[in-house]
């Protein structure tokens, strides 16, 4: 479940639930259906769901289980711009762990939470060099008030708009 970190003088790691399991399940099912509908006109081209580790591992797996498509693959890349901090360094490091040759395939990059957009943009730019047929982006939670780059998100579970949106982590 998505959680909100609430820093305080007494406990800097106090965690509260932001989205309940049922809400996340509902969002994943809605996203899965929207993704299926998007790719239904091209069933012969494989769709590779690529999760951005480590935050999107469970979301990626849940989408993989819920998308009804014959030619469906799953893979992962690693990227980090936070380290141990609560603020992005602004310089994401992408470590491609792909075992799948994505050339000519549809690619769906999955991230649990997109705030600055820097990590997702770096991953998309890296994957684009591998010549997929298409690249689309899917996020469970979008925080556009925190964006530092202009990135279009194709599939969004929910949007949290206020600039003072809470720090979220996990799924």
Structure, described:
This protein has 171 residues and is an alpha/beta fold. 23% of the residues lie in helices and 30% in strands. The protein has helices spanning 21-39, 57-66, 118-128, and strands at 3-5, 15-17, 47-53, 72-80, 93-96, 106-114, 134-142, 155-159, 167-169. The strands form two sheets. The protein has a six-stranded mixed beta sheet, with helices on both faces. A three-stranded antiparallel beta sheet has the order 2-1-9, with no helix packed on it. α1 crosses α2 (57-66). The longest helix is centred in the N-terminal third of the chain and has 19 residues, at 21-39. It is globular and about 40 Å long. Mean pLDDT is 83; it is low at 1-11.
List the helices and strands and how they pair.
Layout: E1 3-5, E2 15-17, H1 21-39, E3 47-53, H2 57-66, E4 72-80, E5 93-96, E6 106-114, H3 118-128, E7 134-142, E8 155-159, E9 167-169
Parallel strand pairs: 3-4, 3-6, 6-7, 7-8
Antiparallel strand pairs: 1-2, 1-9, 4-5
Quick description:
By secondary structure, the protein is α/β, with parallel strands linked by helices.
Number of helices: 3
Overall outline: globular
Strand content: 25-35%
Beta strand count: 9
Q: Main β-sheet, in a few words?
A: 6 strands, mixed
Element order: H for helix, E for strand: EEHEHEEEHEEE
> N- to C-terminal separation?
4 Å
Classify the helix fraction into a percent range: 10-25%
Low-confidence stretches: 1-11
Average pLDDT across residues? 83
Radius of gyration: 16 Å
Task: Tell me the strand order in the biggest sheet.
Answer: 5-4-3-6-7-8
Sheet/helix structural class: alpha/beta
């Amino acid at each position: 479940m998505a959680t909100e970190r609430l820093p305080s003088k007494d406990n800097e790691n106090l965690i509260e639930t932001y989205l309940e399991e049922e809400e996340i399940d509902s969002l994943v099912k809605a996203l899965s259906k929207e993704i299926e509908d998007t790719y239904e006109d091209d069933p012969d081209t494989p769709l590779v769901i690529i999760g951005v580790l480590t935050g999107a591992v469970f979301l990626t797996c849940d989408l993989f289980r819920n998308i009804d498509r014959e030619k469906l693959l799953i893979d992962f890349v690693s990227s980090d711009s936070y380290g141990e901090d609560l603020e992005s360094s602004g310089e994401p490091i992408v470590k491609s762990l792909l075992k799948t040759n994505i050339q000519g395939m549809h690619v769906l990059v999955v991230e649990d939470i997109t705030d600055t957009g820097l990590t997702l943009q770096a991953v998309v730019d890296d994957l684009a060099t591998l010549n997929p047929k298409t690249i689309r982006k899917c996020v469970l939670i979008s925080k556009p008030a925190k964006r530092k780059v202009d990135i279009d998100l194709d599939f969004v579970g929910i949007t949290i708009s206020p600039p003072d949106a809470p720090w979220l982590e996990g799924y």
